[in-house]
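User: My instructor asked us to take a sequence, write out its structure as C-alpha cells, and then describe one feature of it. I'm not sure where to start. Here is the sequence I was given:
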Amino acid sequence: MHIFKALFLCTFLGSATVHAETSPVEETDESGDFSIMQALSKQGWHDLNNERWNAYGQATYISSVKDAFPAAYSNLNGTPNSLSTKAERSFTATTTFYLGFKAWTGGEFYASPEMISELPLSGLKGLGASIQNFELQKNGSESALWYLARVFYRQTINLGGEQFAVGSGPLQLAGLQSSRRFVLTAGNYSVLDIFDKNAYASDLRHQFFSLAFLANSAYDFAADARGYTWGISGEYFFDNWTFRFGRFITPKDPNQLPLNSAIFKFYGDQAELEHRHLLAGQAGAVRLLVYRNRENIGSFRDAINAFNNDPNQNAVNCVNFNYASNNASAPDLCYVRKANIKWGIGINLEQSLSPDIGFFLRGLYSDGKTEVYSYASSDRSLSFGTAIKGTRWGRPKDVLGLGYAQSWLSQDHIDFLNLGGVDGFIGDGRINYKPERIADIYYQCHIFSSTWLSLDYQHVANPAYNSARGPVDIYGARVHFEF
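Assistant: Let's start with the prediction itself. The C-alpha cells for your sequence are:
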C-alpha cells in the first residue's frame, strides 16, 4: 500500500518538476541534478573535467515507525536487549560535506565532516542483522553531533592500458585514469569505502533502508561505533580485474568509539578479488572477499565454560566492559576477552539484466566462534534483490527496489544466548532459534533537481533469531538532498 502511495505522489510531483526545472535558479546540466561544482563550472570558475579541488554535500532525514508485535517473552531475568513489543518511532538526520584537493599528479587529499542526530528503536537493541535504518550509530543521540568522519590521502600510480575519464563527485576528483593502475589509500575512512561495494545495494541513502543490504551482514569489518577507522589499503587494477587488500585498526572494546592504535597487535585484515564482465551485453561484476581479524574478543564457548566452572562469573558481577545486563544467571563475554582470531569468506555479485533492471546477491560465512565486534550480530548471511528504474512508467529517475536477506548464528552463539548471554545488539534471556529474515521494499522518487523522496516497508521475521518474538512490520520515509 505504501509503495502505491509513493507511485501516486511521484506522479503528482512529476508534473510539478517541469516548472521547477525551468527556473533559472534551478537550471542544471542535462541530467537535471544540481551541485555547487556544476554551478561554478557554468560560470567558468571551475573545470569539471580536470579538477584540482571540489566540494560536495548531502543531507538525509529518515523516519521509521514500528508496529506493536507479539512476543512470548521479553528481557527474561534482567537480560536487557529485547526489542520493545510496543509501537515505536525512530529517526536519523545526517549532513555530510566532502572536500577534495589534488596536491600533485595522482596525489589527493580528502576530508569529510559529518553531523548526525538520531533516535533508534529500543535503544538500538533487539535486531541482529536487520536493523531498519543503516544510518543509526551505536553512540548517537537526539542532540546533533559533528565529527570528522574521514580524512585520508589517496595516491594513484597509472601503469598503462586504456585511459578513460573519471567524473567529479564526492571523494572523487575528475580527471583521466588508466585501466591499469595502483591506488594507495591511507588515513581515517570506512572499510566499506573500498571493500564489499555493490551497484544495487551499497549507497543506502538512495537504495534500501535496512542495514542488511549495506554489506555482507556477517562481515565484521573493523570500525568504531560510527563505522569509521584508521588504516591503509591498496588496489591493483588490471583492465577488468581488481585486487584489493587492507589493514585497519579495531575498537578497544566491542561496538565502542575509542580505537586501539596498536595496529600490529590488534587489527582487521581483508582482501578482495573482483572481475568485471559483460554478460549478453550487460555489465556485471563478481567479487570474492576474505577477512581475518585479531582482536581483544570473547569466545562464546569460553564464556559458557567460565560460567559453568564458576557461577560468580556472571553478567552482573563483571567489572570490565560489558553490556549492563542484570541477569545473574547468565554467562558474560567480559571474563574471557583476549587476543582471538575471527575470519570469514564471502561472495558479492551484481548484474545488469537490462538498461533499467539490475540484480545483486551477497553471501558470507564467518567462523561464529566469537562475539560481534564492530558490525551486525550475524555469523552467516545471505541477501539478494533487484533494482528497477522507473523508465517503463515514465519516471526514469525513480527506482523500485525489492530485497530479501537472511542471517544465521553458529551453535556456540545460540548456546550462549539461550543461557541469557548478551552479544552487542541481541539477547532476550532465552532463544527459540530460527534464522532472522527480512524483506525490504522501497520506492525512490526523484522530486526535482538533486532531491529524492523514498518510502519503505520492511517485514522482519524472528527478530534477534528468536521465533518466540515477532514478526515485526516497519514503515519508513526518507528525504535526501545533494549539493
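For the description part of your assignment, you could build on this observation: The mean pLDDT is 92. Try explaining in your own words what that tells you about the chain.
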